[in-house]
Specification:
- This protein has 100 residues and is of the alpha+beta class.
- The chain has a single domain, classed as Fe-S cluster assembly (FSCA) (GMP Synthetase, Chain A, domain 3, 2-Layer Sandwich).
- The protein is 28% helix and 18% strand.
- The protein is built from three helices and three strands.
- Strands 1-2-3 form a three-stranded mixed beta sheet, with helices on one face.
- Helix 2 links the parallel strand 2 and strand 3.
- The longest helix is centred in the middle third of the chain and has 13 residues.
- The relative contact order is 0.23.
Length: 100
Amino acid sequence: MSVEKNIVLALKQVHDPEIPVNVYDLGLIYEIKVDENKKAFIKMTLTAPNCPMADQLLQDVYDAVMDVPTIEDVAIELTFDPPWSKNRMSEEALLELGLL
């Protein structure tokens, strides 16, 4: 299994504290890259710019990715461009929240 797939599996263990769905299926993860130095780069957003749990969620993402075998460092870029919308959610997340 590729390192990126392992990162996705790790991110699926991180849940938004306010929504009972993981950050990956919620559509908060915009990009995952790993460089030759085993550093993971995660580009992500939040459901709202003023999310009161932002610091905790970013820490949870960092911790989960650092637990992936072979990853030695993690850089997280928080962006709001494009802004998050429910259209980014997976079908599984939509079903879980009763939106489908």
